[in-house]
Amino acid sequence: MSTASEKLRASAAEALACGRVSLVLGWRKKDFWWQSPVAFVEAAAEAEQLSFDPFSVYNPVKYLLEATECHEKVGVFVKGCDSRGINRLLQDKRLEREQVLIFGLPCSGKADPAKIRAVFPAQKIREVAQEGEELLVRLTDGQERVAAADFLLEKCLTCRHPNPVVFDELLWEPVPVRAGVDVSRFARVNSVAQKEILERYTYWARQFDRCIRCFACRNTCPACNCRSCIFDQAEPRWLGKASDLADTMNYQIIRAFHVAGRCFECGECERICPAGIPLQEMNRRLIMDIDKYFGPYEAGLDAGDSPPLGTYRGEDPAGFDES
Amino acid sequence: MKRTGVFICWCGSNIAATVDIELAVAAAKNMPGVVFADQNKYMCSEIGQEIIKEAIRSHRLERVVVASCSPRMHENTFRKTVAAAGLNPYFLEIANVREQCSWVHKDKETATAKAIALIRTAVAKALRNEALFASELPIERRALVIGGGIAGIQAALDIADSGFVVDLVEKEPSIGGRMAQLDKTFPTLDCSACILTPKMVEVAQSEKITLFTYAEIEKVEGYVGNFTVTVRNRARSVDMSKCTGCGDCMLKCPVKVDSEFDLGLVKRRAIYTPFPQAVPNKPAIDREHCRWFTENKCRVCEKICPAGAIDYSQEDELMTVKYGAIVAATGFDPKKLGNYGEYAYGKHPDVLTSLEFERLLNASGPTAGKILRPSNGRPPKNVAFIQCVGSRDKAKGNPYCAKVCCMYTAKHAILLCEKVPGARPFVFYIDVRTPGKDYEEFYNRAYEEYGATYIKGNVSKVFPDGDKLLVRSVDALSGALVELEVEMVVLANSVDARAGAKELAQKLSITTNAFNFFNEAHPKLRPVETHTAGIFLAGTCQGPKDIPETVAQASAAAMKVTALLGKDSLLSTPTVAEVDEKLCTGDMSCLVVCPYGAISEKILEERRGRETVRRKVAEVNMVLCQGCGACTVACRPGAINLKGFTNEQIMAEVEAICL
Amino acid sequence: MPVTREGFEPLIVAFCCNWCSYAGADLAGTSRQPYPSNVRVIRVPCSGRVNPSFIIRAFQRGADGVLVAGCHPGDCHYHSGNYHARRRFTILKQLLEYLGIEPERFQVRWISGSEGAKFSAVMNELTENVRKLGQNRKLRDAR
User: Which residue in chain A has the smallest CA separation from B651?
Assistant: First the structure.
């Protein structure tokens, strides 16, 4: 077993054993090689189940909302992206810093199962493990080593903060930021923006037409942490029941607007969307405009700063005709 | 569904000529919730209003829609009408079918269609109107004035004169402020001290005014009518009740410090009053410089004091007082000239700021009123006055005009000629601005009677040349290069907001502009009020002003204060924000956009199963809230709503208007 | 409203701030500055009260153009409402255009209470621009 997982287990066991926390959130291995869901560890003896592998991609931070209701202090393992979720919750006053013990995990990216399946026959894969900068793919008939960088999730390819931005302990050395992320971060947005207006509409209509309104994008998003979401309210009915394109666009526009200036680009909404809607292309478009009009801003880096949509400057430029 | 009545006004032919009233009445009768619809030639007339009242009674109407002129015209009229018939006044809605329909559209068919749509929209909203009530609040009949310059003095005197109790808090050991530093005042040349000191004494003697000098504002809580303010009375180290103000201590104190009042041109002692006419005329010990506090020796003042008033053991005292209204009158600071090296300020003793020059003119100043060069103690012959130093300078100063410099420079030029026979003033200016009664005439005198030379041009450099100063500029009118040999240079440095203005604004929950001057509630129509109800502005803390303007604003602020304190109670606007605690997440997005500080955090205790859990929610202070609704949009879950313009109402209007 | 291209009459919903643009609309009336009856005004206390959801809902229910009109920067009756509105609608407008909604369909303007002529001019311009685009089907309910 990898030393990373061992370090997680040791840290969790120690924190639980000495009573610093009564719950630790991390990841565990499930039945299949690509499954590493969030684990809830309440006793030092259970820490053995923790695992940190190429698929420990879920952001455990959102579970803190419920976890801190019944636990005074919760330990949580966070990657760079996850840690910005902590700042998100702190800034939204949904969490107090002393309620969490944060173990930071510098992360050079998680693997995309689809990319692995594209190279190796899915039925033959037994396990995929991280070994340094390589993935060790164990197959039913042998094993192979490939460069981990070639199998990264889309969202990890454009990650600007692979190292946790808030933590109590860092479990290992920080990793370098990938080269070129500043360009790649907005590449997809720019390519959509370059289309003609009608083409853009057709592109998005085709995307949103697939939306089944499962609300997974909202449910996974640490920025969507309202006690009661407007989309669930009956009076006024902010969102219609009919699942036609207009209502879907209503939902997606307002969802994006509600996370504008607050989205910290973890990309989980897009990754888990069962319909494969490129939601990051909306979220990042808003980030681009916020940077352009109100000055560069990255959410989730400092819980003490002021999100751009709660503040203003008298001399702000307008994105419309001010004449 | 609420029983709704629709009343359509002809407004003579103003509406009826363009809108088919019969058709509109018929259409209204078919709208959801409408049980009655009628028309009248003038709905606002007594007969028209009677029709409404009668229909409310006979048809048991619960909501009323009047289709007429703009609500900005007759909303209040009709609110009173429905109230007279026993309904809550906020059960009324107006459909604006005159200004926004019949008067701007010509085609009767489309205008009628639009009028019907507007009525439908008003009905949709009215169905969701709820009863609204103004709440009543008590008022603390005591005022606080912050700052004891001429603005604060005038405001305090006027408030006291109206019979209300005032506390005047001043940071320095004496009141008087900037005006006390001046020699003469334009355009009349009367002596500043002669007109100011009687007012200072009046403050000290007023039974209604309590003076707190050497004191600062620590904390401000509460809201209009009910502020709770914590004031820090700094340890003076002198027992005010024993001190007789004889001044012996100040003569014997061995420590000499630059006098703030005289801008460092002379020294004061560590135990001091800022100036001879100080009110109160009792000294304070400057602990930063006092030998007892710095080196633990001396205690000369204690030995010399015949009244035994020296008390080294005094500590800062915090007092908490309730006030109904507050006037901020904290004044300005002359601009520091650190980054204006080209004028040789600080490098040559004969380059002075205008306020330093003012001290030279003053009979109680360092030279007893003689204009003498600091370098050699001899009177200057030629003096250059450079205007707009740090004003109207986007590059490294203030972009705004400091307003007073043109006038006091004319005064300086005149006084120079009067005090130093044969002296010649040269004024370098960008523009000469003299708006004000008798101001232009005063400026004319400076060059017509006294022969002051005005040169339009920016001075590029001042440099020492032997025992003189060389001023280099361009005469912008002729284009000629100007090089002038002078014995003294006076810089009209700009007016900055007072140091610490931003921090005080935060304590008061009032806003400032980019230069830390306090913002008035409206630049034209509410110039002495702030956005925080019950807090008013006087003088240069709001922006550069001269003395008459300052005094006028101070009296206006005092009037606002007395009008407020004279009320029996305060009525709040009923159309204010309201929090649905069930929906509130407690992230306080609403709080950050509220311009009135009307939103605060509240801890809610809830039963969950057997446990009591505590959770943070937002709370709206109904008095402070002015009903803008910015919070309602900032709130993602829609937990904060604006009464009278609720989400439900506006959504219903949108639905109805698009039908 | 009719939907044929030739006889097409657009529906314009205008959210107007009570203190400026709504007063400006009243002044347009008082001074008889005509504009098309396609424009229908919803009165709000401040442009900062306008929720993006209201705008989307208007498009859903058939508005062909939506306008938010508020006080000029610096003139907000409530001091800062229009500044917040400016930020919100700056990004909402960019987002709508990015999603393929024609920029003419969603407009934000500053119109003061003394600008009756401007109110009328803006409404004429907006209606004409939207009329040229034809009926809006994007964001519109299928029903």
Answer: A236
pLDDT at C5: 47
* Domain positions in chain C: 12-133
Which residue on chain B is closest to A258 by alpha carbon?
Answer: B636
Chains that touch C (3 or more CB pairs under 8 A): A, B
pLDDT for the residue numbered B611: 84
Q: Which residues of B make CB contacts under 8 Å with A?
A: 513-514, 582-589, 592-593, 613, 616, 634, 636-639, 647-648, 651-652
DSSP-derived secondary structure for B124-160: HHHTT-------EE----EEEEE--SHHHHHHHHHHH
Q: Where do runs of H (alpha helix) occur along B326-468?
A: 354-361, 405-419, 439-448
Predicted confidence band at C6 (pLDDT cuts at 50, 70, 90)? low
In sequence order, the 6+-apart residues with CB closer than 8 A to the CB of B147 are B169, B170, B171, B177, B328, B329, B330, B331, B538, B539, B541
Given an 8 Å threshold on Cβ–Cβ distance, is A320 in contact with C90? yes
Q: Which residue of B has its CA nearest to C20?
A: B72
Asked if C120's CB is within 8 angstroms of B104's CB, the reply is: yes
Q: What domains, with CATH codes, occur in chain B?
A: 4-126 (3.40.50), 142-332+501-565 (3.50.50.60), 335-496 (3.50.50.60), 577-643 (3.30.70.3270)
How is residue B511 written in tokens? 């806003």
Q: Which has more pLDDT, B106 or B572?
A: B106
Q: Is C41 on the interface with B (CB under 8 A)?
A: yes
| C46 part of contact set with chain B, CB < 8 Å | yes
Q: Give the distance from residue C91's alpha carbon to the nearest chain A alpha carbon, in angstroms.
A: 6
Residue-by-residue DSSP string for A302-315? -TTS--GGG---TT
Q: Which residues of C78-100 are buried (b: 16+ CB within 10 A; e: fewer)?
A: bbbbbbbbbbbbbbbbbbbbbbb
Structure-block tokens of residue B229? 């303010």
How many beta-carbon pairs below 8 A join chains B and C?
133
**Across-strand partners of A39?**
A26
What's this model's pTM, rounded to 2 decimal places?
0.76
ipTM for the complex shown:
0.96
Query: What is the share, in percent, of chain B residues with pLDDT greater than 90?
Result: 91
Average pLDDT over chain B, rounded to an integer:
95
Residue B256 near residue B268, CB atoms below 8 Å = yes
CATH number for the domain formed by residue range(s) C12-133: 3.40.50
Output the pLDDT for position A308: 96
